[in-house]
Amino acid sequence: MKLSFGDKTFMAVNYFLLFVLGFTAFYPFWNAAVISFNAGTDTMLGGITFWPRVFSLDNYEVVFKDKRLIDGFIISILRTVIGTLLSIAATAIFAYGMSKRNLVGRKYYMIFCVLTMYFSGGLIPSYLLIRELHLMNSFWVMIIPGIISVWNMIIFRTFFLGIPNGLEESAQIDGSSNWGILFRIVLPLSGPVIATLSLFTAVYHWNDWFSPSLYISDINLLPIQTKLQQILNSNIMLEQMSQMDSAAQGRMSAMKAVTSKSLSMATMMVATVPILCVYPFVQKYFVKGVLVGSLKE
Q: Rounded to a whole number, what is the largest CA-CA distance in the chain?
């Protein structure tokens, strides 16, 4: 079909706006990556935009020499993997029960669940609850409080309602229990929605720095995002650098080109790149998983 002048103009404007928006979103990340690969003393002179002026890996060497940051990186990985697995499993089981039309009081359970999306107890009651549950200063305080997401449960439930009842009835005739139907029939058919919601949950666990800063005081249990937030706070940067272990401090003393800004950019890259690498593997499930799971019952 031949496009008119108006159509071509409309498409050109759209592409231009998309390019501007994409560049605006991408450039800060790219600039941070460039600064992380540039010598810190040279970065202080300014003018670092698209490419490193004095290429250096010293910033990353200092980061990987700091045992505190490596411990935080390991904590983030454990939290993301364990938290995502438990959250998806618990949410799927809950959603499967809520998808049963013969569940007594299903309508009221759903109302109670939705209410929690709009109203919460607040920060202080949540803090007191966590303390009474003896989860303070524990690894599990980053997992258990958010193990079930109502939003994800609704998407799971809607997806499960779209599975033909005949499959479950056939399995019941063959003697399968509800657990067998869930794990052998329903979940294997739910690959796209599981992949999509797993990514959302993993991104949440990887990026969350706020809850550990509230409930955890042991620096050995803090994820790298919380430590990064502390490092990016320029008021305590010198204190953070002074708290590095002896190996990192020694290495940093030998590298006069490393500065607080270049070090913070390198730490930010280490904390950001791993979760970005997950996106390409689940990108193909996004449209199918989210749109199918969000169809109205």
A: 75
Query: What pLDDT band is residue 290 in, cutting at 50, 70 and 90?
Result: low
At residue 38, the 3 state secondary structure works out as strand
pLDDT of 262 above 70:
yes
Asked if 79 and 205 count as a contact pair (C-beta separation under 8 A), the reply is: yes
What does the pLDDT look like over 187-219, one tens digit per residue? 888 888 888 888 889 888 888 888 888 888 888
Count of positions (residues) in the chain: 297
The CB-side HSE value for 148 (13 A sphere, CA atoms) comes to 16
The one-letter amino acid code at 265 reads M
The token duo for 42 is: 């040279």
Q: pLDDT tens-digit profile of 45-78? A: 777 888 888 888 888 887 787 777 788 888 989 9
Query: What CA–CA distance (Å, rounded) separates 198 from 115?
Result: 24
In the 8-state DSSP scheme, what is residue 222? -
- CA 241 to chain centroid: 27
Query: Is this model's pTM higher than 0.90 or not?
Result: no
Determine the Cα–Cα distance for residues 230 and 99; give it in Å rounded to an integer: 43
Structure tokens at 262: 């270049």
> Alpha-carbon distance 276 to 41, whole Å?
29
Amino acid of residue 194: I
Candidates 43, 45, 178; CA nearest to 99 is: 178
Whole-angstrom CA distances from 214 to 28, 122, 127, 142, 162 are 28, 13, 8, 11, 40
Does residue 21 register a pLDDT over 90?
A: yes
State phi, psi for 38 to the nearest 5 degrees: -110, 150
Written as six digits, the tokens of 134 are 């003896």
